[in-house]
Write a structure and sequence with these properties.
GO terms for molecular function: cholesterol 24-hydroxylase activity; heme binding; iron ion binding. With 507 residues, this protein is α+β, with helices and mostly antiparallel strands. Helix content is 53%, strand content 11%. The strands form 5 sheets. The chain has a 4-stranded mixed β-sheet with strand order 1-2-9-6. Strands 5-13-10 form a 3-stranded antiparallel β-sheet. 38% of the residues are buried.
Length: 507
């Protein structure tokens, strides 16, 4: 009995001590949150939802209601060119100040912001973007990867991809012709997702998926990963809810599919090159050749190559398809702009099947249309950087040790930068129009700008030029023109169109 009483007494003391430690830890956390508030509360910002959670409840509510979280940042514009967002004990600043945008994004000394980009390393414990070009924070680590990748995206190499761009776009035209003949509605987002994934698979990895005819698990895997990414970054507690376990496992499985596929394709290509076999002159071959010339290639560098496979496979498909879909949507809503774009295509391309690299340079108005699309609908909405040292943004003192977010969606929709910002007007980007001053950056800016932006816009021009050359299209009545925030921004309706062959007899 004495021993039992002693054990019970020790257990009670241990439990009391443990509870005491929890109380101390909780009070310490409260004091730290208070310290953060005192440090940054001189910076304007919307009222916090609560002391502990900051603005998290507002963000989660918008996400759960299929809202555009970036509209919340747009609402905060009334607080000035730099404003504060609190998430638990973490503070992030948002700015649309052009001078700050220039200072921070154009300099390599400001590293990618640790909170968001570290969260993209994996999804629910499964490696996702890892330390690839998008997420690598260490400058030397990033620069080595960029050095390996750059030759595969040079203008000389991209010129050689025109054949593949034309060939894959022709497959889309055949599918659209079939839908036009059968008077069947076209879900443009779905079809454009197929063609852009076909392009990136072919020109980057030498693989013919032909998704307009064949089924594949990749489109669904990419969509699942992107949705999972949004949830993982914005809801810190999502994975710990037992009700979400099935969805979490689906996201992990989608990540594994993409990475195991990438590992297989890379391994097969390396083996073929070592055996002296004939291999495609695609981006993967170019990257492997350049990497072999690097000194001190490590096993970690090989893992980075796989990280970048996932990056290209997703970013090279998703963002371009969304941009093209928004472009079709806006042209369908603005017949006068559509006719002007068609006339330019007729003048430059005529009846040619193959569009040349030089032709793309003459499609000036189409370039304006695509740029204006990205102003209102930047498919990748922004980027963020760590500001380690104190600085001043628009007269506001910013203590060092904070992340700063640059939101192209917000800056592109502000009256101070673009008159009547929600009006679709490609003439904003006329060659003689004033250039936007550090308020338009759909591909980011500076040394960490998107490596594939020229690739993406070449592909977009080829697809749009062929579409305008061959077809008349109208938007199906009754559909919404809302935006779905799913990691990237995409048209919620899918952009449903009816198509007909153009009648050249009356031209």
């Amino acid at each position: 009995m004495a021993l039992s009483s002693l054990l019970l007494s020790l257990a009670a003391r241990a439990l009391t001590f443990f509870f005491f430690l929890l109380v101390i830890a909780f009070l310490g956390y409260c004091l730290y949150i208070k310290y953060i508030h005192m440090k940054y509360d001189h910076i304007p910002g919307p009222p916090r939802d609560s002391f502990f959670f900051g603005h998290s409840p507002t963000m989660l509510k918008a996400m759960k209601n299929d809202g555009i979280i970036h509209d919340k940042f747009l609402e905060a514009e009334k607080y000035g060119p730099v404003y504060r967002i609190n998430m638990f004990h973490y503070v992030s600043l948002c700015t649309y100040c052009p001078e700050a945008t220039k200072e921070i994004l154009m300099s390599p000394k400001y590293l990618k912001e640790k909170f968001a980009y570290k969260r993209l390393f994996n999804l629910f414990g499964q490696r996702f973007f890892g330390n690839g070009l998008i997420t690598a924070r260490d400058h030397e680590q990033w620069y080595k990867q960029r050095r390996i990748m750059d030759p595969a995206f040079s203008s000389l190499y991209l010129r050689g991809l025109m054949g593949t761009f034309n060939e894959t776009a022709e497959k889309l035209m055949d599918k659209l012709a079939e839908l036009a003949d059968n008077k069947t509605e076209a879900n443009m987002l779905h079809l454009l997702n197929c063609v852009t994934l076909d392009v990136i698979s072919k020109v980057a990895f030498g693989v013919d998926l032909d998704l307009l005819k064949n089924s594949s698990p990749f489109p669904k895997a990419i969509e699942t990963c992107l949705k999972g990414m949004v949830t993982y970054v914005r809801d810190a507690f999502f994975e710990y809810n037992p009700k979400n376990r099935r969805y979490v496992n689906e996201v992990r499985e989608a990540c594994r599919l993409l990475r195991t596929t990438g590992a297989k394709w890379i391994s097969e290509r390396k083996a073929a090159m070592q055996n002296g076999d004939e291999v495609p002159k695609d981006i993967l071959t170019q990257i492997i050749k350049t990497a072999s010339q690097e000194e001190n290639m490590t096993e970690e560098d090989e893992e980075f190559m796989l990280d970048n496979f996932v990056t290209f496979f997703i970013a090279g498909q998703e963002t371009t398809a969304n941009q093209l879909s928004f472009c079709v949507m806006e042209l369908g809503r603005h017949p006068e702009i559509l006719e002007k774009a068609k006339k330019e295509v007729d003048d430059v391309i005529g009846m040619k099947c193959d569009i040349s690299y030089d032709d793309l340079g003459e499609l000036v108005y189409l370039s304006q249309v695509l740029k204006e699309t990205l102003r209102i609908y930047p498919t990748a909405v922004g980027t963020s950087r760590d500001v380690a040292e104190d600085m001043v943004i628009d007269g506001v003192h910013i203590p060092g040790g904070v992340g700063v977010f640059f939101n192209s969606y917000v800056s592109g929709r502000l009256e101070r930068f673009f008159k009547d910002p929600l009006r679709f007007d490609p003439d904003r980007f006329h060659p003689d129009a004033p250039k936007p001053y550090y308020c338009y950056y759909p591909f980011a800016l500076g040394p960490r700008s998107c490596l594939g932006q020229n690739f993406a816009q070449m592909e977009a021009k080829v697809v749009m030029a062929k579409l305008l050359q061959r077809f008349d299209f109208t938007l199906v009545p009754g559909q919404t023109f809302d935006i779905l925030d799913a990691g990237t921004l995409r048209p919620k309706s899918g952009v449903l169109c009816t198509l007909s062959h153009r009648d050249y007899k009356n031209k």
